[in-house]
From TrEMBL:
The gene is ddl. Gene3D superfamilies: 3.40.50.20, ATP-grasp fold, A domain, ATP-grasp fold, B domain. It is an enzyme of class 6 (ligase). This is D-alanine--D-alanine ligase. HAMAP family: Dala_Dala_lig. Keywords: ATP-binding, Cell shape, Cell wall biogenesis/degradation, Cytoplasm, Ligase, Magnesium, Manganese, Metal-binding, Nucleotide-binding, Peptidoglycan synthesis. Belongs to the D-alanine--D-alanine ligase family. InterPro entries: ATP-grasp (IPR011761), ATP_grasp_subdomain_1 (IPR013815), D-Ala_lig_Van_CS (IPR000291), D_ala_D_ala (IPR005905), Dala_Dala_lig_C (IPR011095), Dala_Dala_lig_N (IPR011127), PreATP-grasp_dom_sf (IPR016185). It is found in: Cytoplasm.
Length: 396
């Protein structure tokens, strides 16, 4: 067995929990025949960190209570040499000791809050663990639709007009919110600010529909965004792979939905939910002009660099079919199914994509630890402490 342990982290306290499980199973299936030893890190809906071989099989997730009983609690830690490990926090037998797995790299397969939003990435940074995908900055900004659009505006990247508001603002003064929505002109799109997979996203054609959509969306997030609908709408997506210094773009895709705004069902349930984002109906390569394709690919590269993204990301765009105006919609720093279906068109299968992500993670980590990470002085020595004490008595 390989000594190189790859931890696949997934699940999480998020409405997109099940989507995350599907993406993780695709990663596991693609790497089963690789030279790596695969270690699952499943975060339950209650926030428990669990590991164990039963977590490697999708079939076992039909009975979550039984699966949790078969799994073992775990956490990140360091061994005596200071190397990062995944540590089982309970003994398997009376005479045994908890297992510990030195970590070669982590592949986060989370979707949505508390996983894709930079929080898990920050944990990896704290433990100095190499991990695939974007860092804390790109992950956190990319998860916040409002801040993502503000960043794009600052770099002259076209976005649709919108405004956002919090639940307390809605409770105190809903008339102002409704007035702003009317200024955008109906129809409008209502979105939770920090969710993906089209959960809570609704198109409203009048004020009553808007009120109902807002009340529904507040079940998922306390900060909502209302934006002007693009009509007639065509959605085009493009994936980017690599780092800001060295990257490549995939072919474009045109997702197909039952409505002009793709729903969660359109994206994930067209095959009964077994293939994740890969099951969605789409046209690949997108049936658009070469000029529009090149424009979207160029914007995708620009946005990837602006967000300081890494690994693989999917950039989603809204296109006015009549004018071919292009608007940035969102960046997915851990795209559903890792957008492998886009890279297959470029001759890269899922296994090759995962190996590339691991390689990027390792190289990025080596660059990080190759820099000076501490300053050779001791501020707590006797002389320094005396100086600090002297500051207390100083006068301005």
């Amino acid at each position: 067995m390989s000594s190189k342990n790859i931890v696949i982290a997934f699940g999480g306290v998020s409405p997109e929990h099940e989507v995350s499980v599907l993406s993780a199973m695709q990663v596991i299936a693609s790497l089963k025949e690789s030279s790596f030893n695969l270690i699952p890190l499943y975060i339950s809906k209650s926030g428990r960190w669990l590991t164990g071989t039963p977590l490697l099989e999708l079939e076992n997730y039909k009975d979550l209570d039984k699966l949790r009983e078969q799994a073992t609690d775990c956490t990140f830690s360091h061994n005596k040499m200071g190397k990062p490990i995944l540590l089982e926090t309970e003994k398997k037998s009376f005479f045994g000791s908890p297992e510990e797995y030195p970590i070669y790299a982590v592949i986060p397969a989370f979707h949505g809050s508390e996983g894709e939003d930079g929080s898990f990435q920050g944990t990896c940074e704290t433990y100095n663990i190499p991990y695939a995908g974007s860092g804390v900055f790109a992950s956190s900004i990319g998860m916040d639709k409002v801040k993502a659009k503000e960043l794009c505006r600052a770099h002259n990247i076209p976005v649709v007009d919108e405004f956002d508001f919090f639940e307390k603002e809605w409770e105190r003064d809903r008339d102002t919110v409704l007035h702003y929505a009317q200024q955008l002109e109906y129809p409008v799109i209502i979105k939770p600010t920090r969710l993906g997979s089209s959960i809570g996203v609704t198109k409203a054609t009048d004020e009553q529909a808007l009120i109902e959509a807002i009340e529904t969306a507040f079940r998922y997030d306390n900060n909502l965004m209302i934006e002007k609908a693009v009509s007639p709408l065509m959605e085009i997506n493009c994936s980017v792979l690599g780092t800001p210094e060295e990257l490549q773009t995939s072919v474009c895709e045109r997702p197909l939905g039952q409505e002009d705004t793709l729903s969660f069902e359109d994206k994930y349930q067209s095959d009964g939910g077994q293939k994740g984002m890969a099951s969605a109906d789409r046209v690949i390569p997108a049936d658009i002009s070469d000029e529009l394709t090149e424009k979207i690919q160029s914007l995708s590269e620009q946005i990837f660099k602006v967000f300081r993204a890494s690994g693989v990301a999917r950039l989603d765009f809204l296109i006015n079919e009549e004018t071919e105006e292009v608007f940035f919609n969102e960046i997915n720093t851990i795209p559903g199914s890792f957008s492998f279906y886009l890279w297959e068109e470029s001759g890269m299968n899922m296994k090759e994509l995962m190996l590339k992500l691991i390689d990027v993670a390792q190289k990025r980590h080596q660059k990080k630890i190759g820099r000076i990470r501490s300053y050779d002085t001791n501020l707590l020595d006797e002389k320094a402490i005396k100086g600090i004490k002297g500051l207390k008595g100083s006068k301005n």
